[in-house]
Design brief:
By secondary structure, this protein is of the alpha/beta class.
Length: 287
Amino acid sequence: FGTIKEVVNDSEIELVIVGTPNDTHYPLAKVALEAGKHILVNKPVTETVKEANELAAITKAKSLVLYGYQNRCWDSDHLALKRLLALPSSSSLSLGNLLEFESHYDHYRSGIRASWKDSAGLVYDLGSHLLDQALKLFGRPARITAFIQNIRGVTKPEVDGIFTIYLHYNPGTPFSNQFTVLLRSHILSVKSPQLCYAVRGTKGMFTKYGLDTQEEQLKAMPSVGAILEPDYGQEPESIYGVIENIADECDRSFLAYFLVVLMIFYSWPSDAPGQYIGLFKNLAGAI
């Protein structure tokens, strides 16, 4: 196909996947939706809320599916985190009510890539994934505070290379206490492995370093069919998360008397492999 019109005029095509530069998402998706095609569009879906609302209205009017490419919900570490947060409060591994949830996508890159992605900045790139995960886990916050900066001094001044976003939740949403989500990405982070999660609760803390392995595996695999191999998406034990819990209730009063806190450490495995194919299965089901 030479043009988007040729694509949407093909009656055999039901789904259009938009993986182009950010400023083309809206016009391409709009043309496809108006032609009656379902859409899978890379993040961010659009560059403005107004554009997103317009696409949503067309989608609803035509009973179509508009799906953002938020594949990081199928990262092995995120699946492990969801399993941990689903534990009942009676579990010895429970973190209790969460007080603070910290999530990172940090890396080190001093130069710029020969890619349009470096012209969009981190908030519209990796930030989209962090926000999507947080909203799916905890819902909409009461307010947001954000710090965004072009730390490298390259490309345009508004192209951020570092951000810190706070999502503030009032008591009762989703926990009885005040709750804060901290989302952060830094492009000049000298660390290996990088911090992924730091989750603080009333009973314990979960810390996780290292990233999901799927992206690097996809780059190295000889064919797409390798995603069906049993070792695809498996995370090495060396970057499993760690739970730190305070000793049982029966010991706490004794320990507090002596101003001592006894910590118990547990390894929390990412035993469910990452599966980006889950996004496409979910999309097919929605359609």
